[in-house]
# Entry
Amino acid sequence: MRFVAVEAYAKLNWSLAVLGKMENGYHELDMLLQSVSLCDKIDIQRADEISLKVNGKETPFAQKNLCVKAANAFFEYTGMNKGCDISLTKRIPICAGMGGGSADAAGTLIALNVLYETRLKHEELVDIGMSLGADVPFMLKGGLMRAGGIGERLESKRLGDNIDILVLMPRKGASTPEIFSAFDAITPPKPIDNDALVAALEAGDKTRVAGLMANHLQPVTASLNPGIAIATEALMNCGAMGAMMTGSGSACFGIYPDADSAAKAQQVLVRSRDFKGVYKVHTVHSAVRLCRLLR
# Structure
């Protein structure tokens, strides 16, 4: 194989419960994660060294990019003295809580496994991915999953019905370390009933999903970023059945009865100056899609 192109999908949180802080300093989480149709595109071809272009331009910080980190980890794991030219088209917003960087890492690992015909098993890709970030194992498989620990313990669930979603990106982003530090200073919030939320998602009961989805980090992020409340209120005012922040923020999303109602809301909200991105998406059942290859 000499060229592979993949699409790496973003994620949203149906829930994010912080169960406590562990001895290693990380927070134990109980989350329901969902792949959605917003994606980054990654084109990779064989080369002697690793290079990266983002949106058609060379980047001066290539070694910090998760595509490059994933490629280095892949070649180290396989023992191959090879390289690749990576062209990344970014569509997933950054500092959003949608896992864009982790999606890029997962897409790169899957693309390289195809490109170099190494036939690594999914479990091996997960082992590599864990060294790159806690979200990467989910991004390697996707769909609907319950995630525990720091996000590495995954259990697949079955989504009963596809859901149409509108995502709003406030003008200001969010710093995950800052959010968790602020969370540690507040009174622990009430538990989230993830068992009931799983049942509602599997039954395709959108009304019940809207009532059960919750995010322990949202009040903290909203106290630091007024755009969170503006976004969730705007979604509800435009017909969302329920709306909340995803991850540690700052993207917020609302679920809609159907694609037409989501499209009508998008037409209204895209005219607002409060948001730097308005995305109409829907649930998908995988994390990475192979879209082109050349032998």
In short: The CA atoms of residues 40 and 269 lie 23 Å apart. The longest helix spans residues 100-115.
